Amino acid sequence: VIYIITIDEKPYTLHLRKHSFLPQNFLVYSYNETGFLHLESSYFKTHCHYQGYVADIPNSLATLSICSGLRGFLQFENVSYGIEPLESSARFEHIIYQVKNENPDIPLLAENYSNIWQKDQPYKYNLSSQETTLSKLLPQYLEIHIIVEKALMFTQFKLTVMLSSLELWSDKNKISTNGDADDLLQRFFTWKRDYLILRPHDVAFLLIYRKHPTYLGATFPGTICNKNYDADIAMYPDAITLEGFSVIIAQLLGLKMGLTYDDINNCSCPRATCIMNHKAVGSSGIKIFSNCSVHDYRYFVSKFEAKCLQNFSNLQPLYQNQSVCGNGILEPNEDCDCGSQEECQFKKCCDFNTCKLKGSARCGSGPCCTSDCEISVAGTPCRKSIDQECDFTEYCNGTSSNCVPDTYASNGMLCRLGTAYCYNGRCQTADNQCAQIFGEGAQAAPFACFKEINSRIDKFGNCGFKSSQPLSCNQKYVYRK
């Protein structure tokens, strides 16, 4: 993909290529007002993210999302620019602005971190003849689960950072977020050991807004692929830009993979800022890993087993194949599952520790279970319609605490006075689909565009294929593809 943009009256050509750091089945976890965990798969966002360079600008970097307009960063040698759409513009105009990072003068880690870890587990190494060279490394993948309280810099290492899932503490914080980053790290690690055990990830980050933190983060250095230390804390203070925050994440990941801070007298990054430099958080422009960081990483992957980086997993949550008591989902070998002790609304009906019914209770969870542990009478609404024309309200059947299976109108049935079609319980219009894929305000192209493209009878414009050959469109179907 090629874009031409103008900065200070000078045109720049961006060369972009789709960069996959979200798996196709990227998972988003959130909590409703009663504290129940909700899981949603976001399939339609995997095509949005692109990475590339600016033509004729050596070592430049462009990282953009092209959905809902252009959003992202352009990094030149000594300056960075942000780009985002103007919300009030009806002509798809964008604003480009210089990102001015201020050095927050806040250390990344507590002062005792280096002393503790260099004594027990040194991770500043000398190179040996048995090291693995970067050119011999297979592509590697680091899978991250990120939690958010109420950027891709690792290509030098042939390492792709994959965001496996995202959790939003949308109802309340699951742990106390008071205290310094190192206290939070211990608290977060204890929590995640119980609650994230079945979600695939190599490291879990807790991102916290803190107006004036003492430190910017906390990690266990040199412990990647060690499940006893697979947690990190990152603070987002007022003085940090999004570009600066991405450097914080990169530095924490770097420390976890055996990197150390650069000695400015012995480490170099030609025409760029070194990522593992203490002042990188407050700098603008291109950022790369120094020769020292490359040496550290080469030694680390050759000396220690980093097998978790060598798998490209499908990232399916493990609980799809096994029962987990307390997750709020009724699974095999469970009488009921009302969630955790804090979440359970049926404590007198269901034992939240064993997921077994208490006493004479007939049910202990589910939309068709009453507060008296009885199954709701047949005909009680249990799932409201989400679309007046294409979806139906479901009712309890009088024999189960669960709602009956979701039912909806047959796919292809006309709706909106014959101008749209039902699909999976929704009345689908071209405008709605465009808004769903590209963001609010996106609309379908004019009929003339559909007619021109779909009349080409090639792999882009057709009404299906037969024997691998594109089929022409009947006039009445040109707009409905």
UniProtKB/TrEMBL annotation:
Membrane topology field: Single-pass membrane protein
Residue span(s) of domain Disintegrin: 322-411
GO molecular function: metalloendopeptidase activity
GO cellular component: plasma membrane
Cystine residue pairs: 269-274
PROSITE patterns named in the record: ADAM_MEPRO (PS50215), DISINTEGRIN_1 (PS00427), DISINTEGRIN_2 (PS50214)
Keyword Disulfide bond recorded: yes
Location relative to the cell: Membrane
Entry keywords, A to Z: Disulfide bond
Glycoprotein listed as a keyword: no
Highest rank taxon of the organism: Eukaryota
Any one biological process term the GO annotation gives: cell adhesion
Matches recorded under PANTHER family: ADAM A DISINTEGRIN AND METALLOPROTEASE DOMAIN (PTHR11905), DISINTEGRIN AND METALLOPROTEINASE DOMAIN-CONTAINING PROTEIN 18 (PTHR11905:SF158)
Protein name (Swiss-Prot/TrEMBL): Disintegrin and metalloproteinase domain-containing protein 18-like
Origin species: Ursus maritimus (Polar bear)
UniProt gene name: ADAM18
